[in-house]
C-alpha cells in the first residue's frame, strides 16, 4: 500500500470556501466606484515619453491629496476652537501630525530622481509650478500667512480665485486661537481681535505674555497648554516640510530658477524664516 501524501499547499493562496464573499455586488457600489478610481487613475497623463515623468506627476498628485485631508482637519480644528471644545481638537491635531509626516515622506521618493531624469521632461512643464498650488495657498492662509499678491497667479480661474479671496479675508486658525485666549480671560489687544485679517499677522508682546501665563500655569490651564504645544508641533513640521522641499529642489535642479518664475532654491530659503505662531516660540525665551 502506497504512502498517502499530504495535500499540496500553494504558497500565497487563501482558502475562500468558508468566506461569505459578495461575488455579486447587486446594486451596491464597488470599491473602485466608491473611490472614483476611474478618475483618479486616469489623471496621470505624462506629456512626454520619459519614464520618470510618471513619478513626478504621482508625487505631486499624492501631495495634493494629503493637503486636501490637511485642510479638512484644520477646518475642523478651527470649528472646535470657536466652540471652545479643545479636547475634541486634540485627536485632529494628532492626525494632522501624521498627515504632515506623509507630506514629508514624499520628498524622499522624489529625491530618487536625478538632475538628468528631470531635465529630460522639464521643458514640457512650461510655466506650471507648485507655486500655483491652490490648496497649498489655502493652507497657508488658514495658518495665517496672508499675502494678497499670492492669489494673482490664480486670476484666470475665477472659482479658485474667489475661494482664495474668501480665505484671505477670513480669520486664520491663530486668529481664532487669540479670540479663545481672550474669552478665557487673557489680555489680548482688541486691535488684534478685530483687525484686517487679509494682512499678515505681526507678533505682539502682550500675546507673548498671554502664552507665557498659560505655560506657567499649565496644571490649571492644561487644555490651553496642550493647544499651544499642538500649534508648535504643526509649525515645526511645516518648517521641516519647507526645508525638505528646498533641499530636494537643490538636489535636482541646483540653483536654477523655478518653472513658475521664482528664484528656485533662493526663494524657498526665504520661507524657512517664517513662523505661523511667533509668540509661542518667543515665550520659550522667557521660561
Assess the beta-strand content as a share of residues. Answer: under 5%
Along the chain, the helix and strand elements come as: HHHHHHHHHHHHH
Provide a count of the helices. 13
Categorize the overall geometry.
globular
Average pLDDT number: 93
CA(first)-CA(last) distance: 87 Å
- Rg, alpha carbons: 24 Å
Please summarize the sheet with the most strands: none
Structural class: mainly alpha
Helix content: 55-70%
Features:
single chain, 287 residues, mainly alpha, globular
Describe this structure in words.
The chain is 56% helix and 0% strand. The chain contains 13 helices and no strands. The N and C termini lie far apart (87 Å). The mean pLDDT is 93.
